[in-house]
What we know:
It contains no helices and eleven strands. The protein is mainly beta. Strands 2, 4, 5, 6, 9, 10 and 11 form a seven-stranded mixed β-sheet that branches. It has a four-stranded antiparallel β-sheet with strand order 1-3-8-7, with no helix packed on it.
Amino acid sequence: QVQLVESGGGLVQAGGSLRLSCAASGLAFEINAMAWFRQAPGLEREFVSSINWSGSGTAYGDSVKDRFTISRDNVRRTVYLQMNSLTPEDTAVYYCAARPGIPYPNSTDYKYWGQGTQVTVSS
């Protein structure tokens, strides 16, 4: 049974930071590309960041560049998203996703998904 479990979400004031974690089980984590997506009420799911199997290749959506950092630990089977300088526009449910292969930025390319964790940034 493949399972991705996000944690670390919560309420933070604008300018603050949060670190999200996604723990994976039931899949070959070390050969999977991992990604973070987010979805705010009334909006489409948005690409946030991705990382390849080795951690050497990363990508970020334009709205989070220079503020968010993705990383992974293949021993602990966990991917992280460090979020700094948060703004109310970052408020959304954040989802962890996985696929075997290339870390494409399209949500439809990902096979496995977590349940999401809520991030709320107050003004």
